[in-house]
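The authors assume throughout that readers already know how a fold can be written as discrete tokens. In essence, backbone conformation is discretised, so a fold becomes a row of integers matching the chain in length. A single example would do more here than another paragraph of explanation. For illustration, here is how one protein appears when written out as sequence plus structure tokens:

…
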Amino acid sequence: MKIEITHEPIDTEALTQSLIHNEYGGVDIFIGNIRQFTDDIETEKIEYTTYKKMAEKEMHKLADVVLAKGMDVVMVHRVGELQLGDIAVFIGVAAPHRAEAFENCQFLIDELKHTVPIWKKEYDRDKIRWGGLED
């Protein structure tokens, strides 16, 4: 298991490799990056902020749900100012079978977005928005 809030770029290759074990037959990965357009709104950059201790505590709670099912988990979220194309979040689940990996990876990213105190300040061409659009 690895849970981390970081200011550094996320090394997706190393994180993916950390999930490959002989006891697991399926690994599912979600990588969230900064996109240029949300509907017709053009994004220039995004700034993520958080209270690190609280965010990592909440991430651990989510990971514990999946770990209790006998799977492995990696959750890394980047904070600070991110540019278009930068990776903001990496979620990975290793499980005995692919269906479990898919289901639990989706659970983690959905719950992270709803429960972990990470705030998004989105800089668009014509304004700044806290929280972005629903995505």
Summary: The radius of gyration is 15 Å.
